[in-house]
Amino acid sequence: MIESEICRLLDIRYPILQGGMAWIADSHLAAAVSEAGGLGIISAMNASVEYLKEQIDTARTLTSRPFGVNVMLMSPHAPAVAEVLAEKKVPVVTTGAGNPSRYIQMWKDAGIKVIPVVPSVATARMVARAGADAVIAEGGESGGHIGEMNTMALIPQVCDAVDIPVIAAGGIGDGRGLAAALMLGACGIQMGTRFLVASECGIHQNYKNKVLKASDIDTIVTGRRLGHPVRSLKTRFTREYSRMESDSEISDEKLEGLAVGALRLAAVDGDNERGCFIAGEIAGLIKKEQTSAEMIREIMEQSEILLRGTKWVK
Ligand code: TUI
């Protein structure tokens, strides 16, 4: 049994959070992960508050365990979404792609545990000062919008910089990753990519097949030119996008236009031509579809064996 402060803080059995992935992490996936003893997280993504309210209500019918909602702060709906989360008193809020400081007090007043995703020590310090209960420190191995740092160097530096619990994310997909994260000073992990192929994850089968077939070098980072680097699987579309980014003849407007709707095209339509299939560098490790409960059980068993005795010290 791994004893972790994050389990006590969030009232969960295992120190495993499921990333709040846009167009992917809905109430069904989140409820399955929470029922399995982790923390399931619904993505509020770019959607309206009506969608979010319906997702929260559905999650509450599917599980009595705690769950979270991720707010993508670049969404034009973020201010309205923030209010709804306080009204609905969801157990946990995570945030991404921006500074959540202005909302933290409102959420805490509603009894919500607030856990921002941070890409650097400076952002971790900032949200800790603003009252965050914990942080998710996410390295650039992860899928989606990423910062500059990688997990191995980021986690111990964030752990030393703040006195709230640190959860590691980016490049973690099995019990070895969980054990390593704990060794670096984290008290739990967040995983996105592995949960893409969970049975309860409702994305298009083309998306799951791409993850299952991926090798270690099959992701690419695009979007740096527009200031929003995003890691996703290499496809004809993302390679071509990358080439266009380094072509000065091509305007920023043209690049922005190509990216619009690409996440939805991948997750909902499985569109091999125009979709952006977000996944992290750990995709190459993921070879089988399982239920969320099977994944969590396997990860816990593997990490407990590793942490019980190492071969390095006699
Ligand atoms: O947010 C993510 N991953 C995402 S968001 C997303 S949707 C999107 N689509 C196109 C462009 C951008 C986003 C897809 N994947 N992960 C969490 C994360 N947060 N990564 C990096 C950050 C972050 C960055 C800056 C958090 C805070 C931050 O603060 C800046 C500041 O104000 O100090």
Report what the structure shows:
This protein is α/β, with parallel strands linked by helices and 314 residues long. It is 42% helix and 15% strand. It has 14 helices and eleven strands. An eight-stranded parallel sheet has the order 1-9-8-6-5-4-3-2. Strands 7-11-10 form a three-stranded antiparallel sheet, with helices on one face. Helix 3 runs parallel beside helix 4 and helix 8 crosses helix 14. The longest helix has 17 residues. The mean pLDDT is 97. Ligand TUI binds next to strand 5 and strand 7.
What is the gist of this entry?
The protein is of the alpha/beta class. Helix content is 42%, strand content 15%.
Q: For the report, how would you describe the main beta sheet?
A: 8 strands, parallel
Bound molecules: ligand TUI
| Series of H and E elements | HEHEHEHEHEHEEHEHEHHEEHHHH
Please give the order of strands in the largest beta sheet.
1-9-8-6-5-4-3-2
Cα radius of gyration in angstroms: 18 Å
Mean residue pLDDT: 97
List keywords for this structure.
three-stranded antiparallel beta sheet; alpha/beta; 314 residues; eight-stranded parallel beta sheet
Write the layout of secondary structure elements.
Layout: H1 5-10, E1 16-18, H2 27-35, E2 40-43, H3 49-62, E3 67-72, H4 78-88, E4 92-96, H5 101-109, E5 113-118, H6 121-129, E6 135-138, E7 144-145, H7 151-161, E8 166-169, H8 175-183, E9 188-191, H9 193-196, H10 205-213, E10 219-222, E11 230-233, H11 236-245, H12 252-259, H13 262-267, H14 292-308
Parallel strand pairs: 1-9, 2-3, 3-4, 4-5, 5-6, 6-8, 8-9
Antiparallel strand pairs: 7-11, 10-11
This protein binds ligand TUI.
Ligand TUI binds at residues 22, 72, 74, 96-99, 117-119, 123, 138, 144-147, 228, 230.
